[in-house]
Amino acid sequence: MSDHVYKKIEIVGSSTTSVEEAVTNAVNRAAKTVKHMRWFEVSEIRGHIDDQKVAHFQVGLKIGFTIEDK
Amino acid sequence: MSDHVYKKIEIVGSSTTSVEEAVTNAVNRAAKTVKHMRWFEVSEIRGHIDDQKVAHFQVGLKIGFTIEDK
Amino acid sequence: MSDHVYKKIEIVGSSTTSVEEAVTNAVNRAAKTVKHMRWFEVSEIRGHIDDQKVAHFQVGLKIGFTIEDK
Amino acid sequence: MSDHVYKKIEIVGSSTTSVEEAVTNAVNRAAKTVKHMRWFEVSEIRGHIDDQKVAHFQVGLKIGFTIEDK
Amino acid sequence: MSDHVYKKIEIVGSSTTSVEEAVTNAVNRAAKTVKHMRWFEVSEIRGHIDDQKVAHFQVGLKIGFTIEDK
Amino acid sequence: MSDHVYKKIEIVGSSTTSVEEAVTNAVNRAAKTVKHMRWFEVSEIRGHIDDQKVAHFQVGLKIGFTIEDK
Amino acid sequence: MSDHVYKKIEIVGSSTTSVEEAVTNAVNRAAKTVKHMRWFEVSEIRGHIDDQKVAHFQVGLKIGFTIEDK
Amino acid sequence: MSDHVYKKIEIVGSSTTSVEEAVTNAVNRAAKTVKHMRWFEVSEIRGHIDDQKVAHFQVGLKIGFTIEDK
Amino acid sequence: MSDHVYKKIEIVGSSTTSVEEAVTNAVNRAAKTVKHMRWFEVSEIRGHIDDQKVAHFQVGLKIGFTIEDK
Amino acid sequence: MSDHVYKKIEIVGSSTTSVEEAVTNAVNRAAKTVKHMRWFEVSEIRGHIDDQKVAHFQVGLKIGFTIEDK
Amino acid sequence: MSDHVYKKIEIVGSSTTSVEEAVTNAVNRAAKTVKHMRWFEVSEIRGHIDDQKVAHFQVGLKIGFTIEDK
Amino acid sequence: MSDHVYKKIEIVGSSTTSVEEAVTNAVNRAAKTVKHMRWFEVSEIRGHIDDQKVAHFQVGLKIGFTIEDK
After folding, report:
1. How many C-beta atoms lie closer than 10 Å to residue L53's C-beta?
2. How far does H38 lie from chain F, in Å, by closest CA?
């Protein structure tokens, strides 16, 4: 395992409900194009306010995945 | 939209249940005196422990709102 | 001067043209309600992209002003 | 109260469900060996991805507790 | 207590003598217009030098206070 | 809008003239390969000095864009 | 000296009077259970406000001490 | 040179031996798919412990490369 | 694995030779009293200069280990 | 080039007009006493407000220059 | 005043008594070789522990001074 | 020792081989003009990539030295 190389990408997921769902939405969307995802790191939690109410949460996260050998 | 000016204020909301409810409580309370709220940024998550259990979550957030022209 | 007390507020100014104009717009707008402004500190530079072009710059700044004795 | 001395320790809790449960798991586990816990501060939110899905959340937190007089 | 909402403001106090007096000056001045103050957090210590000597200390602090229900 | 997922990439633009032109150059170049760009965040301002004069400004920025559903 | 190993612990001391006394209180209390203390690093200065006055200073510090060979 | 545009990507390299080898492994792997690499910036050094011994170092780095004109 | 709780401690290792040896020295010394160590994070690299030469490297690191169930 | 040693100094330049001119003023002034300047890094943008208007921008920057072999 | 250029240097002062005296000692010592000092910014507060007691405070500060025109 | 005053300077050393050699090169070069050096703090590790390979490491460090009494 010691010679693995990983790449990190930065994604922002949204949810009207929760921080966890925003993370899940981001990871699920990334899964369509990125393989071998291993971990995520939350870098930012923010959100929009609409009509004086919390409209949705936006969670920025970095996703790490293994780069396979060519 | 390019000449809008916004102000940010810093609020701390609490909840016995969740980070999201603490955010919502803070935004709802701010809505009583602040108009035209647009976004929030979470700056801190902490909480109190009572009788060796998590008693409540405290979430610090900055709220941005449009300053209307006078 | 040593017993002065200052307050800092956080403002976001916008401009389609430049960082400097965004700062100036923020300070000019604040001048309508805040007296005795003394200095500013830029905390954030960001902006919107519209139709694949930079639409405007948004500059977050803290403005310090003297609180006059009552 | 002014002469209290507190110690802070750093714990990481996990949960397949939520950030809040990860915090609660960490505090509950710490309660087995640490007395007089008073507050916590979240320092990090991350997690593992397994089979292209969020597997669990990991939340780093500092826990502050009163050091009793000997 | 869990549903309290707090606001934080940022103040800079000055003193020719000490960091502590600068904090006290800031809190005392804020007390004239802000009710229900609960805690402060020092964010910055700086000062002016005059005639090659320390002229006064300037201490930036955030003050948290309870927002009373309307 | 609440279920949008965004990606952020990090770009460095250069300009002999200004910070704003460096931002614009970066966004214009990114526009050749990236669709649906929404916002940018400046993370770094630096530059080269040549022959004892400012030769050009280099501005690091993160660009956020919507990931379209497949 | 080059093969020494140190441990750092995080302590919060309080004082109604000064930052220095809060540091001293923390170090004196730690001395009851920790040997071979070598240095401290202040990480946080905050405090409580009671009845609209500064009630006490709280200073967070990390204390480094030599781990003796077993 | 003043109108160059660069992109930065974030990679994590591993090595059982040294920080330098982890950097080299990351750069060598990136070289298989990225052209015109110019510089790197180390953002994080961490590692795994196995059977109570350092198993390998993991070094996070950002790699900057020139984006060629299309 | 999702309900594991970890603790982090902060250690400083030294070496006349290299950053890696300082890390190894710190982990080896910790191994005498701490079980189930899993990872480390380097937080600081510094060192002493003696007789105008680098005398030794000091590397601060946080070590994470599993807290076993009681 | 690999054995070059650089020194960094910290300078603050001012301008009534722009961030760029403040940088240029700082670099031009430094050029009177510092040789072989190579790059700069902006660390702070602030400014003074006079008579309720932006009076001038102050830009803090670090300047790196080659130390020539003696 | 808008075309002033300042330089910042970094000094560490010590005192067995207080943070303020450490700052004063640093500024007084700097006054022997640096002219036109204008302000200071505290960047670090730490200290040594000797014989299980606080031996002295060490305060790191940046000192800004006007560079006179040649 | 309690009334010592130190100065910190910022140096960048390079090496084709290792982080440690870059530190050593920087300290050795500084030794030609700076007396009484006491410690260093690494602030940045980066490097150049040439022909798709790591060309050299660049390590930024602050060097602290005692200012002798005049």
Report:
1. 12
2. 12
Interface test with G, best of E19, E20, E35 (most G CBs within 10 A): E20
Instruction: State mean pLDDT over H3-21.
Output: 96
What's the rounded Cα separation, in Å, for the pair B52 and D36?
7
Asked if A9's CB is within 8 angstroms of F2's CB, the reply is: no
Q: Is the pLDDT confidence value at I57 over 50? A: yes
Partner K contacted by E33 (CB < 8 A): no
- Cβ–Cβ gap L39/I18 under 8 Å: no
Q: What is the mean predicted confidence (pLDDT) over B46-59?
A: 98
E2, pLDDT greater than 60: no
Residue D67 to chain A, least CA–CA distance (Å): 32
Q: Which two tokens stand for residue C52?
A: 């694949």
Question: Which residues of D are less than 8 Å from G14 in CB distance?
Answer: 1-5
Amino acid identity for residue C4 in this structure: H
- pLDDT bin (cut points 50, 70, 90) of residue G1 is very low
Of F44, F47, F52, the CB nearest to J39: F47
Residue F8 confidence (pLDDT) above 80: yes
Structure-block tokens of residue D6: 């507190």
Side-chain-facing half-sphere of H63: CA atoms under 13 Å: 33
Q: Does E40 touch chain G (CB under 8 A)?
A: yes
Task: Return the pLDDT at L3.
Answer: 75
Q: CA of H31, closest CA in chain F: separation in Å?
A: 18
Task: Give C12-56 pLDDT, tens digit per residue.
Answer: 999 999 999 999 999 999 999 999 999 999 999 999 999 999 999
Q: What is the DSSP letter of F69?
A: P
CA angle K16/E17/E36 to nearest 5° reads 110
Closest residue to B5, CB basis, from C12, C48, C55: C12
Residue pairs spanning J and L at CB distance below 8 A: 38
* Rounded alpha-carbon distances, angstroms, from residue E20 to E13, E23, E42, G54, L62: 10, 5, 10, 9, 30
Is the ipTM higher than 0.90? The answer is yes
Tokens encoding F68: 């379209």
Residue in K closest to G34 by C-alpha: K52
Q: CA dist I5 to D12, D21, D22, I19, I53, Å?
A: 6, 12, 9, 29, 43
Q: Which two tokens stand for residue I15?
A: 């070496």
Chains L and H touch (3+ CB pairs under 8 A): yes
Instruction: Give E10→chain C minimum CA distance, Å.
Output: 5
Which sequence spans correspond to the domains of chain J?
Answer: 6-66
Residues K18, E18: C-beta atoms closer than 8 Å: yes
User: Which residue from J2, J8, J10 is facing L16, i.e. has the nearest CB?
Assistant: J2
For residues F10 and E2, the model is more confident at F10
Class (C level, CATH) for E7-64? alpha beta
Question: What CA–CA distance (Å, rounded) separates A2 from H56?
Answer: 6
Using 50, 70 and 90 to split pLDDT, how confident is the model at H1? very low
Pick from L48, L40, L31: nearest CA to L64: L40
| A31: nearest CA partner in chain F | F70
Tell whether the model's pLDDT for residue F2 goes beyond 80.
Answer: no
d(CA A21, CA B22): 17
List of chain C residues whose C-beta atoms are within 8 Å of the C-beta of residue F28: 53
| Distance separating alpha carbons of residues H23 and J43, to the nearest angstrom | 27
Rounded Cα distance, L63 and L26, in Å: 9
- I70: pLDDT strictly greater than 90: no
Q: How far apart are CA J58 and CA J62, in angstroms?
A: 13
Does CATH place domain D6-66 in 3.90.190.20?
no
